[in-house]
């Protein structure tokens, strides 16, 4: 029997001169203010034993989605692209149908964490367009902080068929040890059986200089207990993770905590098969 694929379900590419990364301030410097392209990631994947990836938008523009789809078409290891559209726009449906024709397009993500309106996801137009995603079976990535989760729950109640995934375990403030409020709200989200969770972005929410795998342990234990191994996916969040550690360190931190708690079948699910199924990837 062939080994189950290992899939990194969450990483980024960007090219600074494109100029549409709203979060990229001119003076921010290393490690993020430079290009990160497929040739930079490929050797890291080989060393880590990762077979395929899902690249996720990092700019709130249709141009960046087109850029990622072009890169994916040229990059065999990229199995899927999670792009961006304005979900509060009247022409959303027609644009979604055009994207859906692209072979490696697998989902959409608004950058909820960066929007002025914490309740953006429950605007009437956004809810109507979430229903279009649900009808078409297209995945929806939820980039949310703990403060957004009550609004996310309302959206999930309004669109019960939505195929959704919480990015970065909803970004609890691991560095400060904040837990209780996040824990309650992420449990509410996990109560929807169609919602998955990405085990990604955690080292970036920890203390960038002093974090240890044990700092992530209570947060991981909580989401594993809530979602179970069939609704969890590994994601590196590279290159954002470089603020706190290397690609290998992000993966090793997860493995140090998780692998001893899971059966071989559950590990196969978390590290690849769930992403394969959720995003309907063609490997």
Automatic annotation (TrEMBL):
It comes from Oceaniradius stylonematis. GO terms for molecular function: hydrolase activity. Residues 7-281 form the Amidohydrolase-related domain. The keyword Protease does not apply. Keywords: Hydrolase. The keyword Ribosomal protein does not apply. Pfam families: Amidohydro_2. This is Amidohydrolase. InterPro entries: Amidohydro-rel (IPR006680), Metal_Hydrolase (IPR032466), Metallo-dep_Lactonases (IPR052350).
């Amino acid at each position: 029997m062939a080994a189950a694929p290992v899939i990194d379900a969450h990483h980024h590419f960007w090219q600074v001169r494109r100029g549409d990364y709203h979060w990229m301030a001119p003076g921010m410097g290393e490690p993020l203010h430079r290009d990160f392209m497929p040739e930079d990631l490929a050797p890291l994947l080989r060393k880590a034993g990762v077979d395929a990836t899902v690249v996720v938008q990092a700019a709130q523009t249709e141009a960046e989605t087109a850029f990622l789809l072009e890169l994916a078409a040229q990059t065999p290891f990229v199995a899927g692209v999670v792009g961006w559209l304005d979900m509060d726009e009247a022409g959303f449906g027609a644009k979604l149908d055009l994207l859906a024709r692209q072979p490696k397009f697998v989902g959409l993500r608004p950058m909820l964490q960066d929007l002025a309106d914490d309740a953006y996801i429950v605007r009437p137009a956004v809810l109507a367009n979430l229903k279009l995603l649900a009808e078409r079976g297209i995945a929806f990535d939820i980039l949310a902080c703990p403060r957004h989760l009550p609004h996310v729950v309302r959206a999930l109640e309004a669109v019960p068929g939505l195929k959704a995934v919480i990015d970065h375990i909803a970004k609890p403030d691991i560095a400060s040890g904040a837990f209780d409020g996040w824990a309650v709200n992420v449990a509410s989200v996990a109560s929807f059986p169609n919602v998955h969770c990405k085990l990604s972005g955690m080292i970036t929410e920890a203390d960038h200089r002093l974090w240890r795998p044990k700092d992530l342990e209570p947060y991981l234990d909580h989401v594993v207990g809530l979602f179970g191994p069939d609704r969890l996916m590994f994601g590196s969040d590279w290159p954002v993770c470089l603020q706190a550690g290397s690609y290998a360190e992000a993966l090793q931190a997860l493995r140090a905590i998780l692998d001893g708690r899971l059966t071989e079948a559950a590990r196969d699910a978390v590290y690849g098969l769930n992403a394969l199924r959720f995003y309907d990837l063609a490997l």
